[in-house]
Amino acid sequence: MKKKIMLRVLALVTAAAVFSFAGCASGIPTVGGEDGRIIAQLAEIAPKDSQLAEPVTQVECWKPSESMIDDDTFRVLCRLHYEQNDTERYRDMICLGSVTSDPVSDYCYLWAFYSDMPVYEDQPGFRAA
C-alpha cells in the first residue's frame, strides 16, 4: 500500500515538473551581437502591433542573420508570450526590416500559421542577450 502511494506521489511530482517547464519561455536561448541588437528592437516593436490586451512577458524571434531576403532586408517570425486567465499563450508576428536602419523596422504584422502550436517547426527562436 505504501509503495503504491509513493509511486503515485512520484508520478505526480514528475508530471508537475514536466508541465512546469514545457511552456516556460525562460528556456529560450539568447543571442548577442547584431542579431541580439535587432531582436532587442523587435521585442519593443512587435508587441505594439499585436493587439494584445495582456502584457507581453517574453519575445523570441528567429535569427535575422539566418532569415535574410537580400543583403540588407530580413524577415523573421517573433513569438510574443503572454498570460491569459493564468494560462500561458503566445501570438506570432512577422517582422520585416533592414539591418542598417534604426529602428530596424516600423511595424510587424500578425502571422497566424504558428499560433496555438507548442514550438517553431522550421527554425529555433532566440531572445536578445
Can you characterise this structure?
The chain is an alpha+beta fold. It has two helices and six strands. The strands form two sheets. Strands 2-3-4-5 form a four-stranded antiparallel β-sheet, with helices on one face. It has a two-stranded parallel sheet with strand order 1-6. Strand 3 and strand 4 form a beta hairpin. The longest helix has 21 residues. 21% of the residues are buried.
List keywords for this structure.
6 strands, disordered N terminus, four-stranded antiparallel sheet, single chain, 129 residues
Question: What is the strand and helix layout of this fold?
Answer:
Blueprint: H1 2-22, E1 30-31, H2 33-45, E2 56-61, E3 73-84, E4 87-98, E5 108-110, E6 127-128
Parallel strand pairs: 1-6
Antiparallel strand pairs: 2-3, 3-4, 4-5
Radius of gyration: 18 Å
Q: Helical amount among residues, as a percent range?
A: 25-40%
Number of helical elements: 2
The biggest beta sheet reads: 4 strands, antiparallel
Structural class: alpha+beta
Uncertain residue ranges: 2-25
Number of strands: 6
Mean pLDDT: 78
How far from one another are the termini? 50 Å
Quote the beta fraction.
25-35%
Summarize this structure briefly:
This protein has 129 residues and is of the alpha+beta class. It has 2 helices and 6 strands; from the N terminus they run αβαβββββ. The longest helix is centred in the first third of the chain and has 21 residues.
